[in-house]
Write a structure and sequence with these properties.
This protein has one helix at 23-39. It has 60 residues and is mostly helical. It has a domain at 1-40: Erythroid Transcription Factor GATA-1, subunit A (Erythroid Transcription Factor GATA-1, Chain A, 2-Layer Sandwich), CATH 3.30.50. The termini are far apart. The protein contains one helix and no strands. 28% of the residues lie in helices and 0% in strands. The protein binds zinc ion (ZN). Zinc ion (ZN) binds at residues 3, 5-6, 8, 20-22, 25.
Length: 60
């Protein structure tokens, strides 16, 4: 079995990080996945339209 992230052979099949070779690769992959999710830009529909500006900038 090879680590899907770095391609290194995973010899210890009992390790909890499977199928990754190490906790590090597991976290990196998870990070990639998460950043990929967040990379999708959300359409901002709540921009100020000019009207309905009921919000007071207000000084505190
Ligand atoms: Zn790896």
């Amino acid at each position: 079995m090879k680590c899907p992230l770095c391609g290194k052979e995973v010899k210890d099949l009992k390790q909890p990080c499977r199928p990754f070779c190490s906790e590090r690769c597991k976290l990196i992959d998870l990070g990639n996945w998460i950043s990929g999710e967040y990379r999708v830009p959300l359409p901002e529909t709540n921009e100020k339209d000019g009207e309905n500006a009921t919000e007071d900038p207000g000084e505190e």
